[in-house]
Amino acid sequence: MNRRDMLVLGGGAAASVCRLTSGRAGENSSSNPQPAAPFRVRYCLNSGTVRGHNLSVVEEIELAASAGYDGIEPWTRNLLQYKEQGGSLSDLRKRIADHGLRVESAIGFAQWIVDDEQQRQKGLEEARRDMELVSAIGGTRIAAPPAGASGQDAPKLDLFAVAERYGALLDVGQQIGVTPQVEVWGPSKNLSRLGESVFVAVESGHPEACVLPDVYHIYRGGSDFAGLGLLSGSAIHCFHMNDYPAGPPRESLTDADRVYPGDGDGPLDEILQTLHRMGFSGALSLELFNRDYWMQPAADVARTGLAKMKNAVARAVESPPR
Question: What CATH architecture applies to the domain 36-318?
Answer without folding.
Answer: Alpha-Beta Barrel (3.20)
